[in-house]
Amino acid sequence: DPAAGAGHQDREAEPGAVVRAVHQQPQEAAGQHRGGTGPPGLGAEKHAGPGGRLQEQPLKAQKRTLEKLTRYEDEINKRTTAENEFVMLKKDVDAAYMNKVELEAKVDALMDEINFMKMFFDAELSQMQTHVSDTSVVLSMDNNRNLDLDSIIAEVKAQYEEIANRSRTEAESWYQTKYEELQQTAGRHGDDLRN
Predict the structure, then answer these.
(1) Domain end position, chosen among 34, 63, 88
(2) pLDDT tens for each residue of 100-144
(3) 99 in the same domain as 80
(4) What is the DSSP string of the chain?
(5) Do residue 80 and residue 162 come from a single domain?
């Protein structure tokens, strides 16, 4: 059937064109049965006899076909819309996942840096404490010599202790400040990751 073949080609080309083509076919068929043009319902009313009933059957069949094609087109449109929404949502999910991975990598790097700074701080502190205790031992050995320079040794010892305390305080303050900055940065990245 050439009309059916054309309808199949239209359906592949564009669903809306199929509905329009099928909608026109009943009008043309009704016009041919009446021998003229006009609204499709008039032919059925004019031929109300037994022949008119035969003409109504193809029109009803075409109407059912048109309704099926309309439903088919609606389903295709719904599916296309759903597929487009799925693609957009997938892009959003992929972007959020990549952002999460980047934030996790930053948090890991900051935690590694914090751990390194803690180890470095502990090593420096231990070294300074050893240096201070070595100085105290040397000074006490000098004190045991019972020299007349007791006041000078006491003054030098006080100066060394002051220098050691000041250096230790400055180092502790500097490392504590760096440690707090790294913790705050890691906390911010952790908050970003949770959000």
Answers:
(1) 88
(2) 999 999 998 999 989 898 898 888 888 888 877 766 555 555 555
(3) no
(4) -HHHHHHHHHHHH-HHHHHHHHHHHHHHHHHHHHTS-S-HHHHHHH--SHHHHHHHHHHHHHHHHHHHHHHHHHHHHHHHHHHHHHHHHHHHHHHHHHHHHHHHHHHHHHHHHHHHHHHHHHHHHHHHHHHHHHHHHHHHHHHTT--S-HHHHHHHHHHHHHHHHHHHHHHHHHHHHHHHHHHHHHHHHHHHHH-
(5) no
Q: Are residues 153 and 69 in the same domain?
A: no
pTM beyond 0.85: no
Query: How would you class 140 by CB atoms within 10 Å of its CB: exposed for 0-12, middle for 13-18, buried for 19 or more?
Result: exposed
pLDDT 10s digits, 158-168? 888 888 777 77
HEC letters along 13-46: HCHHHHHHHHHHHHHHHHHHHHCCCCCHHHHHHH
Distance, C-alpha 55 to centroid of its chain? 61
**CA–CA dist 86, 105 (Å, integer):** 28
Same domain, 7 and 22: yes
Q: Domain containing 43: what range? A: 2-88
